[in-house]
Amino acid sequence: MDSSTRVVFKLAEYMKQQNNQNNLSEKILPLQPKVIGGFSVTSERFYRSDTNELKFLVVPETDKFPLNLNKQHVLFNEHGHHAEYLDKMLYFIRDNQDAMVKSCAVQADVVTRADVLETLMRTLYMKRNWSILGSRYRNTIYLCLTKPSHSGLTPAELATERNRQIMEAKLKQFLFSDTPDKSSILRCTGGEFHGVFRCKIGELSVVYASIMGGHHAKHKHALNKKSSRFAECKVMLSHSTEPCSQWKPQPEEALLWWSECCLKDVKEIYIARPQSSGHVQSVSTSLLTTLIQDNINNWSSEMCISLLSDILMQIRSVMQLDNASAVYRFDYIANPGILKYNLTKQRNEQTFLADWYRLMLEKPQADIPNIRRHK
Predict the structure, then answer these.
(1) Which of 308, 261, 299, 295 is nearest to 121 (CA)?
(2) Which tops the pLDDT comparison, 245 or 41?
(3) Domain-located, residue 371
(4) What's one GO MF term for it (predicted)?
């Protein structure tokens, strides 16, 4: 029988509590995500347990500028408009059982995707509704968005977001390479390389996957090192009459960049400011610390991390039913800032932990199909 809807979190009460404890609370430490692996996702959205979609950062020499983004042709990736749940992460756990599974249980309090954590981190400053599905199985909770994080945008905002994604895809044709060799050409596959991270968030050990940008290393084997570094590339579309070189990201844009990059330990962002003609005269870099400093009066990275930790703890505290078929649905309503949830105990259309995955944990020696080409 389904549970009735209940309130689990109120933003106003949380903020009141934070203000009352402001002088007593300990300093919130920055997140320290550690790479524990990775996988590829092809343009057809198939999972691959390899690094075939890994890209390397190769910034063009000065004499190659200006870059003409309009000369690049890319197909708009529509997968961002559809929920993908946690299928790819489940395949990763299957392929890395020695590191991920012990005594028939996954070694993590939370398994999720970076977009879930980013959404929670930005809740305080970006007044948008969101919905998350959750299941608890063998004392690990699994969380995924019901819809892509930009699904609540207006038609005009969606058009701007789509244009930005296309321009960034074109920019990557210039900045990313399939090999560390500067002379190589980037395949226009539309695939992605995902890094898998483990991070301590408050009291919880969280494992999640995140789409990666370009790798700084000169050789693929460098991925095995803890010091592996990635960089992101972003496009700033015109929002002022100032010269392109003087544009700075708007506070909300900066928050989006910071929340995305800090979860995958990216320290550096390469920024292009295309003219209306599509030409990019230069590419500048920005450190995450600079984004924080420039927006000290607009948003607080510490408050974002604190809220992320608190909501995760609240979600975990109410998810008491340990059943792979049962699904908790959490709905955040930005106005008035409350998080509600309900529980469907029986298997239903939103159940997202597959039978083969449950069987894998229940019977480790069972013959589980190794479906590497699976959506």
Answers:
(1) 308
(2) 41
(3) no
(4) nucleotide binding
Q: How many C-beta atoms lie closer than 10 Å to residue 334's C-beta?
A: 14
Specify if 30 maps to a domain.
Answer: no
What is the model's pLDDT at position 43? 87
Kindly state whether residue 28 falls inside one of the protein's structural domains.
no
Q: Compute the half-sphere exposure of residue 84: CA atoms within 13 Å on the CB side of its CA.
A: 22
Q: Is residue 33 part of a domain?
A: no
Q: What's the domain range around 181? A: 6-23+38-362
Q: What is the pLDDT of residues 234-284, one digit of tens each?
A: 999 875 556 655 678 999 999 999 999 999 999 999 999 998 888 999 999
How many domains does one find in the chain?
1
Based on its alpha-carbon atoms, the radius of gyration of the chain, rounded to whole angstroms, reads 21
